[in-house]
Design brief:
mainly alpha; 120 residues
């Protein structure tokens, strides 16, 4: 049961990171600018950095999807990519805003716990 819930949560986290990819790579000057309260100038100045960040979020999403849909034992891959997401969320909370932990880090930590409970 915990494994199924963990897989569902992992899929949701992957979708969240795909949303981050789109937001940072393609909607930075429009939707993301409004969402983060940036001026047009700041959005323009940081657009290339955001695109790079979006690409990394895409890699995290791809890794999580690979873990869930792989026919091999998904737990080791899921653990690695969830740990990456959790660390990114913790770092973002420490350096930018605590909100990042609740949006990114906490779901990954919960998924890790569920994954480990299911693996027992």
């Amino acid at each position: 049961m915990a494994n199924s819930v963990a897989q569902l949560l992992i899929l949701l986290i992957a979708l969240l990171h795909l949303y981050f990819l789109v937001l940072e790579m393609f909607l930075w000057r429009t939707r993301a600018r409004r969402l983060f309260g940036m001026t047009a100038e700041k959005a323009e100045a940081t657009a290339q950095l955001a695109q790079n960040q979006g690409l990394y979020n895409g890699f995290l999403a791809a890794g999580l999807l690979w873990a869930v849909f792989s026919r091999l034992d998904f737990a080791p891959r899921a653990t690695f990519f969830l740990a990456c997401v959790a660390i990114a969320g913790i770092f973002g909370a420490a350096t930018v805003t605590r909100k990042i932990f609740f949006v990114q880090g906490l779901p990954a930590v919960v998924a890790l716990l569920l994954l480990w409970i299911g693996a027992r």
